[in-house]
């Protein structure tokens, strides 16, 4: 009787184990299915975001960074105004020496001194330099606008010759600037003419400049050697 009851219990136990194993597989399958759906959803979101980025202008990131920086600057200005502080002074106090030096180098790279190429380029550079220095006198502008009205804005039919008389302050500024230009021009080094009586110890102009530099720095050390070579008494 006992062996019969054991035979009846074994199939029930096996069926329960099989059912539990099947339930475990189904649970893993559902988890994998949910993970696949989540990955598909994330991939779709990434594709949509990438498509948005590709449709944006090429310099969008730079513009965004610039706008964020301007917003921070405006907030900082408001905070300084609320505390009664000067924003420019506070900004200078926050700049480190390394940042200031790096910005100065960047400024020089932006407007490098290319030297003289031709007279037209030199004139253009001078014009740009002078226009950057111009500070508009808005008060004088308003006075002229009241005085001349529409005539202040000439058209193709306007007669301009002899109608404008510069102010004494404007003439003085122009004279001062011209004197400054003359003084600066006098400091320029002139091209020295060749001395026909000097010894020829070079093969071209570049070599001549190098020899002059070498003579300037090492001439006192090599003078005796040169004299011995010229006399033929060098060892």
Automatic annotation (TrEMBL):
Xref: Pfam families: SYF2
GO BP term (any one): mRNA splicing, via spliceosome
Places the protein is found: Nucleus
Keyword Nucleus among record annotations: yes
Gene Ontology CC entries for this record: catalytic step 2 spliceosome; post-mRNA release spliceosomal complex; Prp19 complex
Alphabetized InterPro entries for the sequence: mRNA_splic_SYF2
Keyword Glycoprotein carried by entry: no
Region listing for Disordered, in residue ranges: 1-22
Keywords from the UniProt entry: mRNA processing, mRNA splicing, Nucleus, Spliceosome
Domain of life of the source: Eukaryota
Family according to the record: Belongs to the SYF2 family.
Subunit structure, as described in the record: May be part of a spliceosome complex.
Function in brief: Involved in pre-mRNA splicing as component of the spliceosome.
The name this protein goes by in its record: Pre-mRNA-splicing factor SYF2
Source organism: Calonectris borealis (Cory's shearwater)
């Amino acid at each position: 009787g006992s062996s019969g009851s054991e035979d009846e219990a074994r199939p029930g136990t096996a069926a329960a184990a099989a059912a539990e194993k099947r339930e475990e597989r189904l649970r893993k399958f559902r988890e994998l299915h949910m993970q696949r759906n989540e990955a598909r959803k994330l991939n779709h979101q990434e594709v949509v975001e990438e498509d948005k980025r590709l449709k944006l202008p090429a310099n969008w990131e730079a513009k965004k960074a610039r706008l964020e920086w301007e917003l921070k600057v405006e907030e900082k200005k408001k905070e300084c105004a609320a505390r009664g502080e000067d924003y420019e002074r506070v900004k200078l106090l926050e700049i480190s020496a390394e940042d200031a030096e790096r910005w100065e180098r960047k400024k020089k790279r932006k407007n490098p001194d290319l030297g003289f190429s031709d007279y037209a380029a030199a004139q253009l550079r001078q014009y740009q330099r002078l226009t950057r220095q111009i500070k508009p006198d808005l008060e004088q502008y308003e006075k002229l606008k009241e005085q001349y009205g529409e005539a202040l804005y000439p058209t193709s039919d306007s007669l301009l010759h002899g109608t404008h008389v510069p102010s004494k302050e404007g003439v003085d500024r122009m004279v001062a600037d011209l004197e400054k230009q003359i003084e600066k021009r006098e400091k320029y080094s002139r091209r020295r003419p060749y001395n026909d009586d000097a010894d020829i110890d070079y093969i071209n102009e570049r070599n001549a400049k190098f020899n002059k530099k070498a003579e300037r720095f090492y001439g006192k050390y090599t003078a005796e050697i040169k004299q011995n070579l010229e006399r033929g008494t060098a060892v």
